[in-house]
Amino acid sequence: MKKLTVPRFFITVLMVLVGFTLYSCNDNEGPDIPPVKIENLPGNYKGKLIIVQGNIKREGVKDFKVKKDTISFAEFPISEIVKTVVKDPVKAENAIKTLGKVKYDVKYAAAINTANNVIELTLTPKTMELQIPVDGVNKKTVVEFVSKQKGYYVGLDQTLRYALTAEKITVDGTVVTPYEVIDYNFPFCIKN
User: Fold this and answer.
1) So where are the chain's domains?
2) Which residues form the signal peptide (predicted)?
3) What pLDDT is recorded for position 24?
């Protein structure tokens, strides 16, 4: 029995040493992931959109275009904005239909973060002006957007992520109070 124990011990030690040797030969860099470039960012995107206002949450999919320094929406989602201004649900729906597609652009500055292989976007959203029709009168509505955090284009999976907040709404020069901010979150957007 002693003859069997000693060879098994040496075989085990030998296997462990061979395992460590093979592991040390392994290239620890992982798969080749090309570095992200600013040129990767522009294009047509489709992304998940989560709109949150207070306890109300709505999800959907939204298309937009990213240009050299601008994120452009051919149809920005305005229903929460209109329903904040027009409390009557029927009148609010009529106003949304009358307004139709609302275009909106968000300016950004891009910088590459090579350590994380991402493009960081510093968003500078402009105010949105709407003429919301109610009872035959247009209410001049100004929505002030902010971006509380940077957006990211992730090189690993080639996705875009960012968020906007409608921080304040003014109707005919009067600030809407009380007002719950409207958050527009784009957690996962891919190129079409």
Assistant:
1) 38-191
2) 1-26
3) 54
